[in-house]
Q: What sequence folds into this?
């Protein structure tokens, strides 16, 4: 693919779940069967958008030098939104009835239950809204940005101004259960924070999942740089995979609800004309794999017996009929990071190691510029592992490993 289209949260999540399903949706543009709970969520969101829109007072956007910043004075009705007239409850429910879609429900009874649930959710939300009006600067806002080379976009349900003057990102949820952990761990809110920060001048102060069934705003602090880096790395992996057209399926529990099983090689059946030939290959593969396991076990036992004999006799080269078995040694060191890092931090050497790998620690142990006492204590913290193995020396043909 020549270029990467902006990644949304749903696009990113779909690729992580199954790259092949991502291809079916975003490259092949294959439609999925509608599902009632998705239809329900879209209808409720559309009504909430129209209900809250009269309260919007736009915030200052980041602009390029070639653009003109719209000010609050340019906005019709600016500063009066807190006194704006909301539609009545009856008008809201009439809007809900007009917006209702019947797509994807398993039965008329299921549709009726969802429709009644929607009326209940919206009615209780309306009461909450009239008691405590938010201060939105945008509803259903589409934002785009480039995040260190990765194009991203998203539709944000609501962006509110906080009492302190910052911004709160609000995402409505119609799901059954939600917790504060969901808000703290949500990649979707993390991505929305990046989009808002790159499009608005005010800082993001809160991230909120608004649980419509309980009318509870589940709030979290804005993400720190470490959390942003984690998501950026994952999105970078996704964008690299898409550019490389890496679209292999990832089987899992999600397969049971996938609409593309008939197109997926994980579930495709072997054509009848090829079944007999491939059955023979599978049987042969199974037999060879069993033989491989038997031979590997016998190879390890023989190498161990050779090792014990070489230890007793004090030899490293054992001649056979056609080759010579040569005993080799492999040495490695291990250092417990929880013991080593505090020592290095006290000595001001923590920046000399990155991952804390044994190789990094060994370089410090051998470094003459490091204080001898620190080097001694590092060396004492380590443990050495010695592993013996055998190589077959058969002359010009080369050598072959026989590991114990």
A:
């Amino acid at each position: 693919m020549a270029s990467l289209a902006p990644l949304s949260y749903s696009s990113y999540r779909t690729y992580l779940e199954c790259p092949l399903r991502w291809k079916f949706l975003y490259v092949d543009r294959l439609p999925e069967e509608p599902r009632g709970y998705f239809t329900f969520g879209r209808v409720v969101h559309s009504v909430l958008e129209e209900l809250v829109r009269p309260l919007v007072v736009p915030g200052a956007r980041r602009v390029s030098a070639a653009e003109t910043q719209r000010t609050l004075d340019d906005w019709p009705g600016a500063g009066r939104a807190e006194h704006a007239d909301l539609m009545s409850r009856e008008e809201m429910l009439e809007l809900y009835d007009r917006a209702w879609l019947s797509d994807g429900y398993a039965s008329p009874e299921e549709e009726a239950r969802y429709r009644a649930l929607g009326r209940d959710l919206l009615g209780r939300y309306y009461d909450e809204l009239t008691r405590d009006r938010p201060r939105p600067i945008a509803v259903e806002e589409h934002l785009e940005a480039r995040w260190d080379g990765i194009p991203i976009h998203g539709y944000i349900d609501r962006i509110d101004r906080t009492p302190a003057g910052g911004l709160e990102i609000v995402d409505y949820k119609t799901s059954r259960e939600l917790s504060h952990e969901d808000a703290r761990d949500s990649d979707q809110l993390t991505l929305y924070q990046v989009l808002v920060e790159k499009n608005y001048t005010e800082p993001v102060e809160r991230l909120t999942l608004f649980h419509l069934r309980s009318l509870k705003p589940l709030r979290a602090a804005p993400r720190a740089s470490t959390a942003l880096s984690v998501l950026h790395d994952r999105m970078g992996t996704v964008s690299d995979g898409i550019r490389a057209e890496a679209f292999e399926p990832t089987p899992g529990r999600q397969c049971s609800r996938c609409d593309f099983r008939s197109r997926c090689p994980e579930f495709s059946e072997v054509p009848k004309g090829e079944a007999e030939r491939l059955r023979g290959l599978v049987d042969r593969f199974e037999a060879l794999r069993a033989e491989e396991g038997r031979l590997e076990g016998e190879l390890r036992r023989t190498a161990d017996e050779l090792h014990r004999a070489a230890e007793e006799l004090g030899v490293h080269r054992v001649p056979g009929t056609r080759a010579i078995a040569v005993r080799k040694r492999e040495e490695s060191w291990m250092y417990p990071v929880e013991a080593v890092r505090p020592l290095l931090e006290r000595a001001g050497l923590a920046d000399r190691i990155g991952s804390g790998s044994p190789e990094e620690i060994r370089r410090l142990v051998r470094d003459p510029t490091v204080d001898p006492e620190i080097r001694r204590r590092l060396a004492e913290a380590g443990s050495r592992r010695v592993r013996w193995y055998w190589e077959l020396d058969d002359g010009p043909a080369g050598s072959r490993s026989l590991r114990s």
